[in-house]
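ok so i was messing around last nite and threw this chain in just to see what happens. nothing serious, just curious
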Amino acid sequence: MSNKDNIFSSPIDNIGNFSFDENVVEVFPDMIQRSVPGYSNIVSAIGMLAERFVKPNSVIYDLGCSLGASTLSIRRNIQQEGCKIISVDNSKAMVERCKLHVNAYRSDTPVEVLEADIRDIAIKDASMVVLNFTLQFLSPDDRQNLLEKIYAGLRPGGILILSEKYVFEDQNANDLLIDLHHDFKRANGYSELEVSQKRSAIENVLIPDSIPKHKERLQQIGFSTVEVWFQCFNFGSMFAIK
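result:
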């Protein structure tokens, strides 16, 4: 059972940039469920998509794997033989805990958990790549290069899952969806102080793109099919098929 997220429950004099450190790891399952609308639905559906798209003797990449929720969902649903999952995160604390979660469940599909920068990972012979709320934490200048590398490493017919927080070009819509997200967090027990301090900590770390920006970039790279398959407020998930 997860510890309750109270990281921002007391006043902080100097709020630094948010990082996925040991304190976050201890409360991450609670934090993500109470902060990201639809997160559990997305993770479950990633497993369903794995059942459809993972091919025999291929590699599946979970880039920015955190504690391994998507990795485990994929592994539970793989029906093919000879597959391997490579799960990557740059947080040492996340990787150590992810390895424990992965090793707690037996499976015929091996999982390699790596502590590394996802920009340095070679993508080869992939039938599925997952970026589940990961790309948004990269510098905007690095996003195109990573997506191009993923496209090049995907087999024909392979799928990329890209879950993100979105910004909206219509300012009224954007403000409303931000407010609804904050209402969602309050409904899940976060105080005004927690909402405010978390927003201050993450605003320079998480730089969202718009849905049209994502679509345009993925289509320009060469993906044949690009679409949003899930959205709740200003959070959602897209698939891109090569």
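not much to say yet. The mean pLDDT is 90.
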